[in-house]
Amino acid sequence: MCYNSGMKINESLITQMRKGPLEFCILALISREEMYGYQIINELSSRNGLVTSEGTVYPILSRLKEEGLVKTIWQESAKGHPRKYYYITDKGRRMLYLFKDQWDAFSTTVNQLLEECRL
Amino acid sequence: MNSDPNDLIRDYLVRLEEAIKDLPYIKGKELVLDIESHIYESLENSGSKDEVEVLNILERLGEPEDVVKEYMRQMNIEKGNVDTESTTLGDRPYQSHYSNEGIPPWVVIISVALIFPIGIILLWISQWWATKHKLIATLIPVVGVFLMLIMGFGAFSVYRGAPHIIEDRLSPSIHQKMSIDTHNSWKIERVYVSEGIFNRSVSIPENIEISRIPSNTITQGGNVLSSLLRDIGGLIGVPIMFLGMISTVFSPFISAVYLALTKASRPII
Questions:
Q1: Do B38 and A38 touch (CB under 8 A)?
Q2: pTM: predicted TM-score of the whole model, two decimal places
Q3: Quick check: B230 and B90 in contact, CB under 8 A?
Q4: Residues of chain A where predicted confidence (pLDDT) is lower than 50
């Protein structure tokens, strides 16, 4: 990430840049297998720059659920306490497909322009 | 400065509980549960459970107020001091549930007070009360109606406790009016003889007992228990009647007052 080096960059800009794609990153994660909240956040946090405050992932998960893109199910863990697992719905998969399509084109364009820019 | 790790977690959750007051009740509780179980899982997966570890876990979670702010932003819940600037880039393309608040609560309250059956239907559709409160508001008049039934029983008991006057048709042209006295024996009070459209009344000397039970009487129980019930009914019937009337008339108002007191600050989904 080059934008942190030395230069004072508007913190909210970076936060905003992350926010849009974040919900689709969550969808992408659970499109492979159902996961519980802590697991999702752990995965996201292990990737650079995706999540700053972990607590704010739960509101996003709530909204995804509200919109019917994911569903939840409580399951007992091996350790005996219940966990809320999130899994993707057909609607969520369609949304993810649409996003991926758009994002591929979008990111290619942005990357091209950034490579050509003069700093 | 050393703190008990449990105190740190408790403080964090207290702040979160305070912050969720602006959210719909159930949604707020759900968020607290999510965060609680996140902290729990984090501790389970960390080697140590000391102060530093807990501080790190809470630090990574972010301020509780910010978590709630993000929730409101995601769900499009408006609040005076919510930073709306931050929503410009992340405009939500979907309409949130929360913009629809349904029937205004005061309409529900007035309907319950004035046109109870319709009010109750509106109440159950409304999103402004928890199910528990809806149930209680519905049951208050049910209790009222129950009291009215007791009132009916009381009135009936008074009726049964009083001497009965029964007309017995002996023949098409002769009616006799009889009463039952407190000793359960029938006495003929008067005899009417039909003569065309006129009834001629013939007085009967008092205390002439007849053994025949009139054909259309309500059978009177003669045992001690039933007469005792009758006496009790007569004694408490009137106050109960009064109570029943009051509660039947006023119970919808009581429900309405109850609803006004228990209205949620936000619609409950």
A1: yes
A2: 0.49
A3: no
A4: 1-7
